């Protein structure tokens, strides 16, 4: 993996930190998630592999850009941290959480869901093979119980 594109997100903080520390990985900070689809396409055209990190709410921002995946048929990997599920404090996260998997599948993206820590490594490795060996488009959904309860903190 030569590139990791992301909108900063606490659920992906460990992966983002590791990507930033790795000199072999170019981390690309996005202003909005749909830019990640274009970054992944550009990386592929330039001979590199890219993973896009986003929250489930960001999937909704990407639906129109996912048409690029259908038309150009380039490999695409996204790791999606789920919000709006377990112990969610923000009611705005719920509707997209309930629609995330179906929205991805309707756009031709295979969805793999992970809810237990011991499943993560195998699921991500399988997704990497499907994407970069077989040329598929895959989203790995990381359930909210897996990433932990997000807490609202007031100053």
Supply database-style keywords.
155 residues; alpha/beta; Rossmann fold; six-stranded parallel beta sheet; 7 helices
- Percentage of residues in DSSP E strands: 15-25%
Strand order, largest beta sheet:
2-1-3-4-6-5
Give the CATH architecture: 3-Layer(aba) Sandwich
Q: What number is the mean pLDDT?
A: 94
- Oligomeric category: single chain
Description:
Helix 1 links the parallel strand 1 and strand 2. The protein is globular and about 45 Å long. It is α/β, with parallel strands linked by helices and 155 residues long. The chain has helices spanning 13-21, 34-45, 56-62, 66-72, 94-106, 117-132, 144-147, and strands at residues 3-6, 26-29, 50-55, 76-81, 110-114, 137-142. It has a 6-stranded parallel β-sheet, with helices on both faces. It has one domain (3-147): Thiamin diphosphate (ThDP)-binding fold, Pyr/PP domains (Rossmann fold, 3-Layer(aba) Sandwich).
Task: Give the secondary structure arrangement, pairings included.
Elements: E1 3-6, H1 13-21, E2 26-29, H2 34-45, E3 50-55, H3 56-62, H4 66-72, E4 76-81, H5 94-106, E5 110-114, H6 117-132, E6 137-142, H7 144-147
Parallel strand pairs: 1-2, 1-3, 3-4, 4-6, 5-6
Short synopsis of the structure:
The chain is of the alpha/beta class and 155 residues long. The chain is built from 7 helices and 6 strands, in the order E-H-E-H-E-H-H-E-H-E-H-E-H. The longest helix has 16 residues, at 117-132.
């Amino acid at each position: 993996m030569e590139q990791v594109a992301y909108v900063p997100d606490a659920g992906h903080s460990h992966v983002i930190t590791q990507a930033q520390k790795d000199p072999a990985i170019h981390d690309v900070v996005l202003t909005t998630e749909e830019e990640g689809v274009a970054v992944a396409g550009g990386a592929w055209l330039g001979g590199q592999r890219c993973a896009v990190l986003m929250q489930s709410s960001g999937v909704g921002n990407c639906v129109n850009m996912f048409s690029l995946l259908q038309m150009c048929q380039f490999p695409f990997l996204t790791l999606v941290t789920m919000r709006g599920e377990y112990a969610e404090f923000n009611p705005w996260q719920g509707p997209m959480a309930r629609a995330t998997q179906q929205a991805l599948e309707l756009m031709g993206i295979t969805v793999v869901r992970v809810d237990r820590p011991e499943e993560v490594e195998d699921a991500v490795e399988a997704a990497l093979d499907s994407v970069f060996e077989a040329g598929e488009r895959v989203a790995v959904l990381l359930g909210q119980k897996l990433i932990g309860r997000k807490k609202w903190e007031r100053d």
